[in-house]
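STRUCTURE:
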């Protein structure tokens, strides 16, 4: 599910591409004193992700922007909505907004047989763990740390890491009796179109700034069955790849 947030810019301002940490902070503030607050310091996926304020670009007072917050938990989105209604002043980094409206959305990839495209609205963060680097002939850093995926690493490690990550989220957010992405035959996506790779500095925790390597994609799919439909819809709710609570891996359904 998704919460669509209509925003109005409160003053002339430059677009802040380092919005991730500030926006994440506002969402956690909305979840304080709720059943979701305990996930803040955990190492597992957090159960929410979000878009950038779009369209990107410098703004004049009164300009309109849109923000999307996604989660498999309807009540989590309700907490965020109530917080934004109670305090509609939303400052995202250096970008000052006023919340003008909230709408609930339920995107769906479609019934079995449906074909479509999912596109990354924000950068996708995929890392190859050190214990799998030899398997892919990847020269790591030599210090036992993960390596950010880059095009020269080929597609197989990216496919495997996307499925492994979505498997983890399926185990956390779906009933135990349902089959996860790695339990079924067939690929998650039929086609992978790389749009670009890029690196940006990001505040990952308070006082810790790191440069991360991201990629943007278009993924084609044809829904095979109800299991596959659930897996694809889960990616819409949780994002793909890692660090979704920083807004990475947010995906949109662009055609079906």
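SEQUENCE:
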């Amino acid at each position: 599910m998704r919460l669509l947030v209509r925003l109005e810019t409160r003053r002339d301002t430059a677009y802040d591409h380092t919005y991730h940490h500030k926006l994440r902070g506002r969402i956690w503030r909305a979840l304080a004193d709720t059943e979701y607050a305990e996930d803040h310091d955990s190492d597992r996926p957090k159960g929410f992700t979000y878009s950038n304020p779009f369209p990107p670009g410098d703004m004049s007072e009164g300009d309109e922007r849109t923000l999307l917050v996604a989660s498999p938990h309807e009540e989590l989105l309700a907490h965020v909505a109530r917080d934004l209604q109670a305090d509609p002043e939303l400052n995202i980094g250096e970008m000052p907004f006023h919340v003008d409206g909230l709408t609930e959305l339920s995107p769906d990839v479609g019934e079995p047989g449906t074909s479509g495209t999912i596109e990354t609205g924000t950068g996708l963060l995929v890392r190859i763990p050190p214990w799998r680097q030899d398997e892919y002939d990847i020269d790591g850093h030599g210090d036992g740390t993960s390596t950010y995926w880059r095009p020269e690493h080929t597609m197989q490690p990216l496919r495997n890491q996307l499925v492994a990550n979505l498997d983890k989220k399926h185990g956390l957010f779906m009933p135990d009796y349902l089959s996860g992405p790695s339990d079924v035959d067939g690929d998650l996506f039929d086609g992978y179109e790389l749009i670009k790779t890029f690196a940006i500095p990001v505040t990952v925790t308070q006082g810790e700034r790191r440069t991360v390597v991201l990629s943007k994609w278009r993924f084609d799919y044809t829904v095979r069955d109800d299991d596959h439909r659930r897996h694809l819809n889960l990616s819409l709710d949780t994002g793909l790849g890692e660090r979704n609570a920083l807004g990475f891996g947010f995906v949109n359904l662009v055609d079906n």
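REMARK: Residues 155-173 form the longest helix (19 residues).
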